[in-house]
Every structure is written in C-alpha cells, then in structure tokens.
C-alpha cells in the first residue's frame, strides 16, 4: 500500500487549506488559527498530512526545541488528528514518521469530535469538554439549560442589556480590554494572546465577535469564537469589571449568531481543573460532555530518559507537564 507523508508550513496557506478540504476538522486546525498561534508563540508551525488509498489524516503541530531535542505540540486549543476515513495501523505509521524526523516526543490535545482510537494510539488522561447543541437555535439552548441560566438571561434583558454587533467596535474593545482583563484574571503569559496574534485572529473570515452593553449603551464585554462547518470553538473573551455578569448573555449572543450560520455545536471548553467551579458553571447549560484526550507520546525513549535525567525528573511521570524535562527548562 502506498503511503505519503508531508509537512505544510504556516507560510503555505493555500496548500494548508487544500489539505483540509474534505476532512472534518475544528477551527483550531485551520490555517487562520494556526497562523495566529504561530505569531503568538514564535514556534514554527506545520500541518502534518498523511495519505493512503484515499484516506487523509491531518494534524497541526508546533515545533519546539530543548537542548537540541525536538518535540511537537498542538499549536493552540483542541485539534490533534482528524481524518476523512479509517486508517488501520496509523498509530504505528505515525510513530515511525515522527521518529524518522528526529522528534523525541509530542503532546497533542485531541479534539473529541474528530479523533479516532486507531489514529491516536494510547491516550494519556481525559478531561471533559462541554458542547452546546445549536441545531434548535437560541430557544433550544435555553430550553435545555437549567432554570438559573434562563433566569440570568431574563434578568439581563430586564435590566436593558443590549447586544453589540459592529465588528470594528468589537475589535477595538477587545484589543483595548483583553490585556487588563487577563491581568485581573491572574493569567500567565502562556494563557495570553499577543496583540499581533489577536489582530491576526480578528482578520479570520470564520471568527465571530459578539459584545454586550448596558441600558445606556456602554459596552462592557465581548466574546470571540471560531468555526468550521462541523462546529464552533469558544476562544476568548474580555470585559470591564462591571461586565462580569454579562457572561451568560455573551454565550447566548454567540449561540444566536452561530445557529443562524447553521453551525451544529458550540464548544464551551472545560474547567481549569476537573470538576472545578468553572466546569460546574458550564454544566448548568446541560451540554453534551465529551472527553478531550491528552496524547503524550514518546518516539525516542532513550533520548527522552536522558533529558529527564538532566532535568532531575522521572522519565516515567505521567502527571503534570509533558515533556517532563521542561519542568526546569524552556522551549525555544
């Protein structure tokens, strides 16, 4: 059986988009999103494309180095492997390809709606993500949600809350307020988007923005999300301090927009930690829950063990950051 493998760079947008045609995938796998992610991290970013007898497997990757050792990581969000059909034995094929490229290991955040056990090989760790079903529109989402969500929505309307849809206004607010908002949230550098990366996201044709304002028309909050034909991903938001109670309305503004576009689901993400208050708040929507898999794969165990020994960490550690040898180092 003839197989082919290639890596398409983020500097090849046409080839990247062509490779995704006919393959169900998340917004996090698109060139637009990965280009913005590459600006944000500074890491070389590529799309793996494997093909065999009409089956195509894709996987976006960012390339990191630590003491000369190469590892691959999901550029941002949840993507991992996606395909247009079954490829038995792909996990072994993938591991051989990665080892042949001199890659020591990889950490892939596998999207639950696009992965497949035969593609992934062994998965390490699971965590719930929460998906709103948009097929019945805003009314369907509200009917599914618990009573507190419907009351929050009614309270926001009774206070005269308004949606803001002018894209220029929304983009300017996001660029001005995202940094201060993340400061108040105590977010570290790794959790933030740089201004140039945000600007790139805002140029994406499949990125939406919805904002909310109070009864006097003062804008207080904005949400940004991206979509493909298969579903939408909630990516980031920003608000003034007095806009914190606009979160429910922001979500429903996104629901209204996406359902009008015919997008079937909206991924709200998960909690910061399993079972925390963030996850509990998302469960009040009574969403579909699906497990996001953390794929921690080692292709050169000897080199991996040596790097862990240099860092003073156990090579067989499965919890915490991966690769474990980054515990005392950094990627370039």
UniProtKB/TrEMBL annotation:
Entries under SUPFAM superfamilies matching the protein: Acyl-CoA N-acyltransferases (Nat)
UniProt superkingdom: Bacteria
Gene3D superfamilies assigned to the protein according to its UniProt record, in alphabetical order: 3.40.630.30
InterPro entries, sorted: Acyl_CoA_acyltransferase
UniProt name for this protein: Uncharacterized protein
């Amino acid at each position: 059986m003839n197989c082919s493998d290639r890596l398409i760079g983020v500097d090849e947008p046409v080839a990247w988009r062509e490779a995704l045609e006919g393959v169900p995938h998340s917004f996090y796998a698109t060139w637009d999103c990965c280009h913005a992610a590459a600006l944000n991290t500074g890491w070389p970013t590529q799309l793996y494309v494997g093909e065999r007898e009409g089956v195509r497997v894709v996987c976006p990757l960012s390339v990191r180095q630590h003491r000369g050792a190469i590892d691959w990581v999901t550029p941002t969000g949840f993507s991992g492997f996606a395909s247009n059909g079954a490829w038995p034995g792909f996990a072994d094929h993938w591991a051989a390809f990665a080892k042949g490229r001199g890659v020591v290991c990889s950490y892939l955040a596998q999207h639950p709606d696009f992965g497949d056990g035969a593609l992934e090989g062994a998965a390490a760790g699971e965590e719930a993500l929460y998906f709103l079903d948009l097929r019945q529109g805003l009314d369907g989402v509200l009917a599914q949600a618990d009573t507190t969500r419907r009351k929050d929505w009614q309270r926001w309307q009774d206070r005269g809350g308004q949606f803001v849809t002018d894209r220029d206004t929304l983009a300017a607010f996001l660029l001005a307020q995202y940094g201060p908002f993340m400061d108040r949230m105590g977010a570290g550098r790794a959790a933030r988007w740089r201004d140039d990366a945000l600007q790139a996201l805002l140029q994406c044709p499949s990125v939406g923005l919805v904002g909310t304002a109070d009864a006097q028309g003062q804008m207080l909050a904005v949400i940004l999300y991206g979509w493909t034909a298969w579903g939408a991903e909630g990516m980031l938001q920003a608000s003034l301090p007095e806009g914190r109670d606009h979160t429910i309305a922001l979500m429903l503004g996104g629901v209204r927009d996406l359902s009008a576009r015919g997008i079937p689901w909206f991924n709200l993400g998960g909690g910061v930690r399993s079972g925390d208050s963030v996850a509990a708040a998302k469960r009040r929507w009574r969403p579909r829950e699906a497990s996001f898999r953390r794929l921690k794969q080692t292709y050169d165990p000897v080199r991996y063990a040596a790097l862990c020994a240099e860092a003073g960490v156990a090579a067989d550690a499965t919890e915490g950051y991966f690769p474990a040898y980054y515990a005392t180092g950094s990627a370039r």
